[in-house]
Specification:
InterPro entries: ClpP/crotonase-like_dom_sf (IPR029045), Enoyl-CoA_hydra/iso (IPR001753), Enoyl-CoA_hydra_C (IPR014748), Enoyl-CoA_Hydratase/Isomerase (IPR051683). By secondary structure, the chain is an alpha/beta fold. It is built from eleven helices and nine strands. α2 packs across α3 and α9 runs antiparallel to α10. The relative contact order is 0.10.
Amino acid sequence: MSLSSSLQDVQIDDSIQLEQHSSILTIWLNRPESRNAMSLSMVQSLQVVFTAIQDDLSIRAVVLRGKGRHFCAGGDIKDMAAIRMQAASAGNNQAYVDFNRTFGALIEQVDTAPQTVVAVLEGAVLGGGFGLACVSDVAIAHVDAQFGLPETGLGILPAQIAPFVVKRVGLTQARRLALLGSRFKGQMALNVGLVHQIAQDDTDLDAQLAEVTQQIKRCAPKASRATKALLHRTLNEALSPLLDDAARQFADAVASEEGVEGTMAFIQKRHPNWFNGE
């Protein structure tokens, strides 16, 4: 299937590839020679794509995957070397600050994307790749995927991903994982709550992804977007006013075209009109 109209004119480089089938957009991290290490250009290309699809209701889900059987091995060391030269030339560390914060902005953007974000985790899932996994709505991992926060072993900090790691696995586990910098595989990732499902082999991984995307298609597009936004608000807003607003949103949803169609489909024992089964 061709790309949605919102993506027809996006300016991205070959560090990522886009593939769309029906309402599911797959973003492939495409630097297999470096285990899909995140360069600045990759980060910027991802930002462009997520900005372009922000209001595109035809894209129901975004699947993040890595080419070459690796998800993402973290930041690109070559970029760091170039930034070191910029910092030396400027006589200050602002280039490092800007580079690191740009990646944090991407993580925030993926975290709050209105689409359902599915991470398919194989091979290296380290550093920044670990952070991306933490902001997915659904994470499916190969049992042999290698997870880790190696930053402290390199003399640096997991600066931008730290808050998202804590939200995902809790402070106690985040402290252990970040301060030891140890590597672990899919089963432990499942045990600590980093991922939701583990696959035993490639066939199982693809089957689980197919089932997840089918489940996403069964849910109403606008209701899914509103639900994700509401869930995010629960972390930051006072409870009583939040529930008041949620009640108003519920009432609007019941009376909406989606609400009427969903109710009728349930009564008539059929799929709602937003589910095409493709």
